[in-house]
Amino acid sequence: MIDRLIAKIQETKAPIVVGLDPMLSYVPEQVQRKAFAEYGETLAGAAEAIWQFNKEIVDKTCDLIPAVKPQIAMYEQFGIEGLQAYKKTVDYCKSKGLVVIGDVKRGDIGSTSAAYAVGHLGRVQVGSRTYAGFDEDFATVNPYLGSDGVKPFIEVCKQEKKGIFVLVKTSNPSSGEFQDRLIDGKPLYELVGEKVAQWGEEHMGASYSYVGAVVGATYPEQGRTLRKVMPKAFILVPGYGAQGGKGKDLVHFFNEDGLGAIVNSSRGIIVAWKQEAYAKYGAENFGEASRAAVEAMIADIRGALEGEL
Amino acid sequence: MIDRLIAKIQETKAPIVVGLDPMLSYVPEQVQRKAFAEYGETLAGAAEAIWQFNKEIVDKTCDLIPAVKPQIAMYEQFGIEGLQAYKKTVDYCKSKGLVVIGDVKRGDIGSTSAAYAVGHLGRVQVGSRTYAGFDEDFATVNPYLGSDGVKPFIEVCKQEKKGIFVLVKTSNPSSGEFQDRLIDGKPLYELVGEKVAQWGEEHMGASYSYVGAVVGATYPEQGRTLRKVMPKAFILVPGYGAQGGKGKDLVHFFNEDGLGAIVNSSRGIIVAWKQEAYAKYGAENFGEASRAAVEAMIADIRGALEGEL
Description:
The structure is a homodimer.
Chain A: H1 2-12, E1 16-20, H2 29-39, H3 43-61, E2 67-70, H4 73-76, H5 79-95, E3 99-106, H6 110-121, E4 124-126, E5 129-131, E6 138-141, H7 147-160, E7 163-169, H8 176-179, E8 182-183, E9 186-187, H9 188-201, E10 211-215, H10 220-229, E11 235-237, E12 261-265, H11 267-270, H12 286-308
Parallel strand pairs in A: 1-2, 1-12, 2-3, 3-6, 6-7, 7-10, 10-11, 11-12
Antiparallel strand pairs in A: 4-5, 8-9
Helix pairs in contact in A: 2-3, 3-5, 3-12, 6-7
């Protein structure tokens, strides 16, 4: 799957991923109205609205991008019905040939992490049969519990040829509270990065590992360090756009082969229709606004990479 | 809710919580057979089997215990159908008067943590209405992202009078890999514990905070330290029983008022029917075996506390 992700990035010339993180307030009125007319102002109505919203954005952008990253929290807030919309979104994106990174940030003690790994990346045994619960291609994983919380994911990834991105340095303002604290002179995120590199040796693709890392675009200097600490790890980079990261901040997340990173934008793409720059599309054509925002993001990142690499 | 948890602990004289973490292999044959007869060897069949298993254990133990802690991963591995069984379990336990601690270990950047908080502890807005997605009483939270990943949970807890338990020192063998690393001479878990104490000041019950901590029974010395670092935090203590913790290891997790901790056992209770000590009940009476295991656990912990406090 890491090789497929890389092939898709090379094919689209776009090291980007669209974050499908729908809040109901991001969904244009007409889409909400239609869903509520059918299902009422219910959880099922909300789930239908975000699913239709996602579908339109995917339809309008899927030829330009290699991957999507649905954030499961945004679906989980609507309970079971929301998670059904998550599953529908994952399945639909896969049917469109997109690589799906489930942004689930799971992680627990060994046997429990194994259950999460099975549910999101593997197949669960039921009597004589097996079933895939959510079946994303990649999942994000929280490292706070250490190796025995992460390795069950790697085991499932080996069986399924899938991958994970481990949280190393997150994009949020208070990520430094614990992640930046110095341990023997090195910040915690660097120790986690070293572990990611070690774990990654256990499950290599052709040129990169199936074990990647999450490093926020909002911390370009740390990205530069971590790029060296984990040379074979693909870096999933959130925080571009709405959170403040820009193309020029991103160059050091990439290797000299022009690969090694994939940059996520969520609000910047899916709520493009509310931004001044794309106002001309109007709420009716929110999918077209997203497409234009994807094109602008690709141009920004390509420009930055061509300038530097 | 923390006051209600404390009242329930005092009423039952049992500072324990039963971990409802069903693997399909824990469920006796006859329960599986019946579920598969109705739904086939499907995800729905597996979900029915674990739900019936849970229901029987809850029916046979609910008068002895204050709380349950379903581990969502064990349900999530069965996809949507599994999560429906989780929701059913949460609702049923609440209808039996039990406090429900959702062991979800969520945590993300601010707006995303807010969505998790709403989904598990709060109510989500849909048009002019609001709905509770999963509606647990407490949730466990991962602190790796720092304050802005935790505070959205506290905000929802304030509105709903609910609580969280933040992972501080987890029970698993490799928890020390990052959590024990020294920062200015103090282990990371202690810094996290200090933060829990600070966060907890924002949302106090009558004698304890709504912001608790998770500290593994397998690390009694660390428990002793953390008890002092977070005097007002209730400590949720996993790792008793199957993971190796014993009653006498637990005394330092409690305060001198005999409160301040609640000890979880999962496999030790729900798979009692497979243990030699409870073999006489047979697979047919697995609920009775769980009840006997609960009684033994309560006696062990009461004995240890009476000896020490």
